[in-house]
Automatic annotation (TrEMBL):
GO terms for cellular component: alpha DNA polymerase:primase complex. GO terms for molecular function: 4 iron, 4 sulfur cluster binding; metal ion binding. Pfam families: DNA_primase_lrg_N. This is Uncharacterized protein. It comes from Homalodisca liturata. It comes from the Eukaryota. GO terms for biological process: DNA replication initiation; DNA replication, synthesis of primer.
Length: 227
């Protein structure tokens, strides 16, 4: 559900290129109605949520967005919207399984910084709360009644600044109150914040040039940026 840990293993260069290009083409077709892209250009096996290929496409696009603010903003927004759209078609059992995988990946990553530890603790709280609502059968999918307040999340406002700025959520002692009827709306905002945060962490290390030094990534970057 949330991209925490890059997949391991090897992948053929041709498959990597198809995976990344399919993902960016889908974003262009779906969110910008780009006439230069058609459904025939897409290979949907690369877009199934939670798969290794899905994760590869996501993490590579993170890297390829580093050198362009315009591309970066487009990728961050598209990735969040894309995740929410796919969740709407999943059963409650599939959503619970994705949540379990996300939490497991948090536990499997290397030694986190203090800020990462705090962030990851909040992620676990959010997803455990959502998992409880799904397992209790109170929520069956993400097309839940928008007025429902049976379950609540209380989280630091910086995890969803966008909705706080729009005054769409209640703010109480530095925390926002998110009723279950607004979880889908919240998650899209939170997913954007998470991807933006992860990209900012890479940028803060000042090693963008070294990351994109591989000729294969340079070629992919040029393809993506020309899109």
């Amino acid at each position: 559900m949330l991209y925490i840990k890059p997949p391991r293993g090897d992948i053929q260069l041709s498959e990597l290129q198809e995976c990344v290009i399919t993902r960016i083409n889908y974003f262009l077709l779906r969110y910008q109605q780009d006439p230069a892209v058609s459904k025939n250009d897409l290979k949907f096996e690369y877009l199934q949520i939670g798969t290794a290929l899905d994760r590869i496409g996501h993490f590579i696009l993170r890297l390829l967005s580093l050198e362009s603010q315009l591309v970066k903003e487009f990728i961050i927004s598209s990735e969040a919207t894309f995740t929410i759209e796919r969740l709407e078609f999943l059963s409650s059992e599939q959503i619970v399984q994705l949540i379990k995988t996300t939490i497991r990946h948090i536990d499997e990553v290397g030694e986190p910084s203090k800020s990462d530890t705090l962030w990851n603790t909040q992620i676990k709280y959010i997803f455990n709360k959502i998992k409880s609502a799904f397992k209790s059968a109170h929520i069956r999918d993400f097309n839940h009644d928008v007025l429902c307040t049976a379950y609540m999340l209380k989280i630091p406002f910086e995890m969803c600044v966008g909705l706080v700025a729009k005054r769409e959520l209640e703010l109480e002692k530095g925390k926002i109150i998110v009723p279950c009827g607004k979880w889908k709306q919240f998650l899209q905002c939170f997913f954007e914040a998470h991807v933006k945060r992860e990209i900012s962490k890479i940028e803060s290390k000042g090693c963008v040039a070294e990351i994109i030094a591989d000729q294969r990534l340079i070629e992919l970057r040029d393809i993506v940026h020309k899109k």
